[in-house]
Design a protein that fits this description.
about 70 residues, mainly alpha, about 65% helix, elongated
Length: about 70
């Protein structure tokens, strides 16, 4: 036998699911905004190179690599 569908129960469950999803969305962390220790070190090195003017341009790197 099939169970009778209780529309009030369905509405209640859907409301609970919606609340859970809203909670999850508001507490999610943007993965792209997390820096690993390696990322942080690389960023610091980049900033030092930029400040000292020792960065290699994209074009210069391509020439150096023969691309």
């Amino acid at each position: 036998m099939s169970e009778a569908i209780d529309s009030n129960e369905i509405r209640y469950e859907l409301r609970a699911i919606r609340e859970d999803l809203d909670f999850i969305k508001s507490h999610m962390v943007d993965v792209d905004s997390i820096l690993t220790e390696e990322d942080y070190i690389s960023l610091q090195e980049y900033r030092k190179e930029k400040e000292s003017g020792t960065l290699t341009s994209h074009e210069a790197l391509k020439k150096e690599l023969g691309i």
